[in-house]
Amino acid sequence: MAAGSGSGGGAVTDRHGATMAPPDLFGVGVDALTMEQAVTRCTDAVENGGYLAVGVINAAKVVAMRRNKRLRQAVTGSGMVLADGQSVVWASRMLGSPLPERVAGIDLFLELLGEAARRAYRVYFLGARRDVLDRMLAEVGRRYPGLAVAGARDGYFRADEEPDVAAEIRQSGANLLFIGMSSPRKELFVSQWGKSTQAGVVHGVGGSFDVLAGLTRRAPVWYQDHGLEWLYRAWQEPARLGRRYLTTNIWFAGLVARELLRRPARRRNAPRGDAQPGQARPLGGTSQPAGHGSAATRGERA
Fold first, then answer.
1. Distances (CA, A) of 139 to 33, 122, 135, 136
2. Does residue 29 form part of some domain?
3. DSSP-assigned letter for residue 252
4. Does the CA dihedral 281-283-285-290 come out positive or negative?
5. What CATH code is carried by the domain that includes residue 172?
6. Does a structural domain hold residue 34?
7. Are 21 and 281 in contact (CB under 8 A)?
8. Residue 132 is part of which domain span?
9. Looking at the domain assignment, is residue 278 inside a domain?
10. Residues pairing with 127 in the sheet
């Protein structure tokens, strides 16, 4: 089955269908949205019978996307791409394409659960171990009484079972689908099967299920505000995350430095009339007719 195939549910909400692209960072169009605006994009997709795949990027994912073409295609092919990491927001400001704020994947997840409870949306949870999933569902029920849970399934299934998983979600009538799996698996699942689930919004939330289940702790606000959430997580899981975060952070800093060196030359060589850094510009330097966006391409445990 082709990526994104299956019986759809209404028009696709895709920023690539617009004439102008969002600010470009490292070859990725990142939507310059606040949390409030991102939530509105999601609820509009559900209310209007559309489909919106949510992609998020942080420093580690930017680096991973340079090495993994399928991941890159999955992320940039999303209808909305957000800055999950504070380092991405800082980089956007240094590079002249400032994003208004960080929109962390886990925070969007929690905001949408609140909206789902208020608006009677049906929610499906996919991912994690069964015991973790059960603990997470209990916590969700405590925080959001009355939330309509369309279904839940652990993330331990084979690739050849994916069509059945997508069909199960479709049959549940879910409006929102949250995928608690690690990257790049969650991005690739969304890219191939998200639309066929017929959920209005599909959001890969990585390790957020573990946080709600109490298996891991989220970094205190001070760490989040100072771009050090990665350090707190590495402290919790040094064997798994320590070296990886150190390596990816060095790579990311190098990418930012390279972009800083390139941009003055681009401004000098840009023909009159081209968009300047910090302005929206057409994808690939040319306007895209409405409804004809390029399917370009998402990943790290959030």
1. 29, 17, 6, 5
2. yes
3. H
4. negative
5. 3.40.50
6. yes
7. yes
8. 22-207+248-260
9. no
10. 180
Show the tokens assigned to 12. 């696709």
- The top-scoring range by mean pLDDT among 6-20, 122-136, 228-242, 250-264 is 122-136
CA angle 212–149–161, rounded 5-degree value: 90
pLDDT at 280 exceeding the cut of 70: no
Give the tokens for residue 263: 């941009």
Q: Which two tokens stand for residue 257?
A: 């430095």
- State the DSSP string of 57-88: E-HHHHHHHHH-HHHHHHHHTSSEEEE-SHHH
Q: Which distant-in-sequence residues (6+ apart) come within 8 Å of 126 by Cβ?
A: 152, 153, 155, 165, 169, 177, 178, 179, 180, 181
Domain total in the chain: 1
Alpha helices for the chain (secondary structure H)? 35-47, 59-67, 69-76, 86-94, 105-119, 130-143, 162-172, 185-193, 208-212, 221-225, 229-236, 243-269
What tens digit of pLDDT does each residue of 142-173 get? 999 999 999 999 999 999 999 999 999 999 99
Structure tokens at 250: 């060095």
Name residue, tokens 């400001």: 93
Examine residue 239 and state whether it is found in any structural domain, yes or no.
Answer: no
CB neighbourhood size of 97 (10 A) = 22
